[in-house]
Amino acid sequence: MVAYPERGAVALRLSRVAGVDTVRALAELIVRFGANVQPGQIVALSSEPGKEPLTRAVAEVAYEQGAKFVDLSVFDVHVKHARALHAAEDTLDFVPPWYGERVLALGEHRCARIALSGPVAPNIMSDVDPVRLGKDMLPALRESIPVLNARTTNWTISPCPTPDWAELVHPHLDPDAALERLWSQIAHICRLDESDPIAAWTARIDKLVSTSQKLDGLQLDALRFEGPGTDLTIGLLPASRWRCGRFETAGGIVHAPNIPTEEVFTSPDPERVDGVVRATKPLFTSGAKITGIRVRFEAGRAVDVEADEGGGTLRALCERDPGAARLGEVALVDREGRIGPLETVFYDTLLDENAASHIALGQGFEFAIAEEPERERVNRSEIHVDFMIGSGEVAVTGTTRDGTEVPLLRDGTWQI
Asked: Least crowded by CB within 10 Å, which of 32, 333, 343, 407?
């Protein structure tokens, strides 16, 4: 049993949800299904202070699986906070070169990569200028996208509940009850309450593969999102292909990069996005909470970016490079997943983006484009920032290459 020193009184209750040792079960799902760690692989594990129980459980399962070495990298947001407050502003975008070199080396050595998401100190940046926050993207690294597109690593990201995160999500519960509630939700979302979580995930992803194939068969030229505050048209490239959360490395290792995953997605034409869109959920990125996002696009570019809270951070992100204000991803999410029905804002992109259709500013995915020449048209950027634009009130309609309109999502339900 893994102990929770920061919440000792509730540790025994947390260790078992629905009759399952949740920490161990989640670690097994992450290692054996998400990253699908292979015997003899080096495993790069990214964590934060406060996530020690799951971190150690993942390492244990990885070694049981035959890992050659578990290379732990710990990012401390408190150190980032000190930098955000006191470092010279013209140094905030500096990243030591060996950070990126490490990521590239992970690809060269065909490593497995595992990251644990979820904020550990969600309010720590409240005293920092939002514009300064938008200049420091760490722990995100620009080298991650080329490694992803090259498919040289099998990888996954999974949530890790922490006390401060639990209190952010469930502020009306006492701290122990909030943490217990968040762990229970994560166990349900990750299908740990199933008799065989891996089989349950295999079945769900099979459905997502089928949906991707149906969308490809429609030969869509564009998508239109219509709802409160939203009337947005997103053009697709002729070679855009729909993908879901089942990836395969260049060496043939099948893995699930997101646990959980409920989306189908593609990379759009970065020059054919027009209209207005209103976010349907808050965004937590670069240490900032951004709420009430409203964006207007013209000829693919976000020309007007507003928010009720944290707008300065989002605008700073959009100004990082020429591609930062254009789209690199559009994703559709139905209501059959387990996150949306909980009607909970998790303030963690991994969870919130799998509860609602979303778009991402910044870098696109070359592997979502079927033909080599068109891959050069994929958006390029240092950033990839997802925000949620879907809900039961937002209708999604496709337009085929011959101009036929096809209803795709209505009230969160597939129409195809």
From this structure: 343
Residue 382 DSSP code: S
125: which 2 tokens?
């940046």
Tens of pLDDT, residues 334-370: 988 999 999 999 999 999 999 999 999 999 999 999 9
Is the CB of residue 249 less than 8 Å from the CB of residue 153?
yes
What is the model's pTM?
0.89
Instruction: Kindly tell me the sign of the dihedral angle through the C-alpha atoms of 161, 159, 357, 184.
Output: negative
Is omega for the bond preceding 146 within 30 degrees of 0, making it cis? Answer: no
Structure tokens of 36?
């699908």
CATH number for 19-158 (one of 2.140.10.10, 3.40.50.300, 1.10.1040.10, 3.40.1830.10): it is 3.40.1830.10
Backbone φ, ψ for residue 283 (5° rounding)? -120, 135
395 Cβ neighbours under 8 A, 6+ residues apart: 225, 226, 227, 407, 409, 410
Place 16 in a pLDDT band, splitting at 50, 70 and 90: low
